[in-house]
Write a structure and sequence with these properties.
Blueprint: H1 2-44, H2 49-52, E1 57-64, E2 67-78, E3 81-86, E4 90-94, E5 102-109, E6 116-123, H3 127-137, E7 155-159, E8 164-173, E9 176-185, H4 189-200, E10 204-205
Antiparallel strand pairs: 1-2, 2-3, 3-10, 4-5, 5-6, 6-9, 7-8, 8-9
């Protein structure tokens, strides 16, 4: 009887050791893979609208030539910023970041080829440096001065030859400066000018 009890005890111990080894190994591998996958996703993806504390969709109230327009728009979440873009009438293009010193996202009007809204990022540039660089890049436009130009206080220049207008605002974040800009024909100032300004004012940098 004593021998049988010892044998049973040894058998149970062996079974427990075997199960514990298999369970630990499987859980360890699975946990490691899950952690790696989760880390990869969170590093690569942009945050959601709710994570940014913004609504995914909204309605832009725009006064155009004395008439109030309500324009449905969806939040575009890009690298380092978000902005509401109308659901219709715009096509998106991007240079892609690729660790470049300068990269740009842009939305072009499908109604007027001369109308554009864009966001340009200057890496390792202060606010003042980026403003100077942007104006140099847009050399066809003449600006009276570069006082202001922060968010909510746009600077506006004109291209007399092509009769076009360019406005922009800049903001600094983590050693980079983002410039949100919009250009349109001068004769469309009360139309596209008003719409673009309203869209640009929804630009927000990520914290």
């Amino acid at each position: 009887m004593k021998k049988q009890l010892i044998a049973c005890t040894l058998l149970v111990s062996l079974l427990l050791v075997g199960c514990g080894t298999d369970g630990t190994s499987g859980t360890g591998d699975s946990g490691k893979e899950t952690s790696q996958e989760t880390g990869s996703v969170s590093a690569d993806r942009n945050p959601t609208a709710s994570e940014l504390g913004r609504e995914e969709t909204t309605t832009l109230a725009i006064s155009v030539e004395g008439t109030d327009e309500e324009v449905p728009a969806t939040l575009a979440v890009r690298q380092g910023y978000s902005i509401y873009i109308p659901d219709e009438g715009w096509t998106f293009e991007s240079d892609g970041r690729d660790d470049g010193a300068v990269w740009e996202d842009s939305w072009d009007s499908t109604v007027n080829d001369d109308v554009e809204l864009g966001v340009r990022c200057y890496a390792e540039q202060t606010l003042d440096q980026a403003k100077q660089r942007f104006v140099q890049d847009k050399e066809d436009y003449v600006f009276e001065d570069l006082l202001g130009g922060e968010l909510g206080d746009p600077l506006t220049g004109a291209d007399a030859e092509d009769n076009e207008v360019l406005s922009f605002m800049a903001a600094e974040r983590d050693g980079e400066t983002y410039v949100v800009f919009w250009n349109y024909p001068a004769e469309a100032a009360e139309g596209f000018g008003a719409r673009l300004s309203a869209i640009a004012q929804t630009f927000v940098l990520m914290e």
